[in-house]
Batch of 2 targets.
Target 1
Amino acid sequence: MKRIAVLTSGGDSPGMNACIRAVVRQALAMGIDPYGVRRGFEGLIDQEIVPMTSRSVGSIMRHGGTALLTARSQRFRMPAVRTEAVQGLRDHGIEGLIVIGGNGSFQGALKVAELGIPTIGVPASIDNDIGGTDMAIGVDTCLNTILDSVDKIKDTAGSSPRPFLIEVMGRHSGYLALLAGIAGGAELVVTPEQKMTLEEVASEVESAYHRGKPLFIALIAEGAAVRAADVCEYLKTRYPVEGAGPRLTILGHVQRGGSPSAFDRILATRLGVAAVKALAAGESSVMVGIRSGVVGTTPLVESLATCPTLDPDLFEMSRALAA
Ligand code: F6P
């Protein structure tokens, strides 16, 4: 294999740059010419394919986001568009593609492989909802960003006690809410995996109050059956006292940014190197991931068919320790 390309796709996550850097420098170390595709599959369609050098990835590792830019491409869903885009890779002499992204990006990666260009996926998404890997690139940094906010909100919550409802990202997964809840000592976590009602959330607030807790923090996943904003409005009807009512914080895209943690930089580097080695070894349609500390590959179809579940012990732990 003489020439490969790398792209980032879907929602960016901290550590994507470290992965791009690892891919480029590992390829060069193996005598392979690395190319970058800008704006994910959108850039593939528009042939935004640029040669990468060791210098073009210098100093990018410490930055969040992605230097190659990213996009969610609707156009790539069209077969004729895809065929032409992949022909563009061939026209550039590119013999293999590395796709850094999440589940949606891996659907695109599979299509590229079906059209004859060997393709490897690298899991990167703050949601940690990708089958075949214990951790995706960006999750650790995101958890630390959430924790920073939780700790700060706790300062004010402890000074002027009232219920604080914090909405976190995660799409259909409650991973971020649950893990940040455990690490941040939240009184309650609400995730799509449990089916809590507004009344049940309110009774948790009351129970905490009766137990003499000086503050109440709930971490509510954006995909939960009850939305944080609705919980807040509901609680206002229960605690109508001026100034003592509930407060809502939607963390939003702040969770996706920031300098990647050491964990994410190392994970991204290991997976980027593994992806290049897998391509060079003739593999295709697989995702490189990490399980129990060991880097390995999983067929993309298997990864896409697996919906990671949250360990019930973690829910139990979170509840027990919020006593
Ligand atoms: O998948 C990552 C993620 O940040 C989700 O947690 C969130 O639901 C979504 O992307 C937000 O997407 P966008 O940046 O397109 O608004």
Target 2
Amino acid sequence: MKILIVNGPNLNLLGQREPGIYGSESFENYLEQLRKRYPEITIDYYQSNVEGELINKLQEGGFLAAPVYDGIVLNAGAYTHTSIALHDCIRSLKSPVIEVHISNVHTREEFRHHSYLSPVCKGVICGFGLDSYRLAIEALK
Ligand code: DQA
């Protein structure tokens, strides 16, 4: 099984950025643990702060007849709440996409309550800290 984790803007700063909300562990460190936990799964990782680059990567990994990945775990960060372009991209992918958030966006500012991505994702996991990514992998399994 091959899974792609995609992180959007500002998630390169995990561990340093607002640790009260997002925790103090870097994603690279967490990813190492995930890979050890699921040795049977190839877990590729991509992060970009640029909307179009996220779309390029998603298309590359999940598009049409022969998708590279069995599933995609996507934390689009703030683009979740703004991006019709990501919505359109996900709806044309063959690979199932799970939307994840580290924080529980529904307990935060109102502008985080709406997601353009949820209607075109297979499911949504939010609010479990970095463990949200593991739960998404479990769902894809
Ligand atoms: C986030 C929640 C978003 O609202 C925010 O813009 C992020 C991170 C999360 O993982 O909790 O950058 O996606």
